[in-house]
Design brief:
Pfam families: FMN_red. This is NAD(P)H-dependent oxidoreductase. One of its GO terms (molecular function) is FMN binding. The chain is an alpha/beta fold and about 180 residues long. It contains 7 helices and 7 strands. It has one domain (about 1-175): Rossmann fold (3-Layer(aba) Sandwich), CATH 3.40.50.360. Helix 3 (about 55-65) packs across helix 4.
């Protein structure tokens, strides 16, 4: 099983990349690939930019990476209640190549933040909109108060650890039955 983990933030210290990578690491015998957004340099999407310069190769690389995996674990960072600008821009460009960019891959959709809501607004937005982009969301989870609930060895709160375990098991089940 090939698992792709994405933290939808361009921060070099992305807690969402940490969370996505940790969730992927709990899947035994899986091949795991991490896709950090840090360093992806693309112009802001616009019709003018696309008509003048075409679609950046980074968008095709992202799409190819999704296609090369059996499942996606995506943890969303929340900026002002929505996606980060870097992630939204990547989605906008990639959807110009393929509107159903998630390709019906089983997806575990996560979010976390330092605050008590754990990125729940962006998680709700993605849960509502990603199916229009070809997402097969099999489970979701929001991890509140990242720095209080996540440590060197993973999630420190037993109830939250159990929630993640259940969500990961749903992802595994979805991949093995498809």
């Amino acid at each position: 099983m090939n698992i792709l983990s994405i933290g939808a933030s361009s921060s070099s210290k992305s807690i969402n990349q940490q969370f996505a990578d940790y969730a992927a690491s709990t899947i035994e015998h899986a091949k795991r690939s991490s896709y950090p957004l840090r360093g992806i340099q693309m112009p802001i999407y616009s019709e003018d930019e696309e008509s003048q310069h075409g679609i950046p190769q980074e968008a095709q690389q992202f799409l190819d990476t999704i296609h090369a995996h059996d499942a996606v674990i995506l943890s969303l960072a929340e900026h002002n209640g929505s996606y980060t600008a870097a992630f939204k821009n990547l989605l906008d460009w990639t959807s110009r190549i393929n509107q159903t960019l998630w390709s019906e891959k089983p997806m575990l959709l996560l979010s976390t933040s330092p605050g008590a809501r754990g990125g729940s607004s962006v998680l709700a937005a993605a849960t509502a909109s990603f199916p229009h982009l070809g997402a097969n969301i099999v489970a979701t989870m929001s991890l509140p108060s990242f720095y209080e609930n996540f440590g060197e060895d993973g999630i420190t709160n037993n109830d939250l650890a159990s929630q993640l375990n259940q969500a990961v098991n749903e992802l595994i089940q979805s991949v093995t039955t498809s």
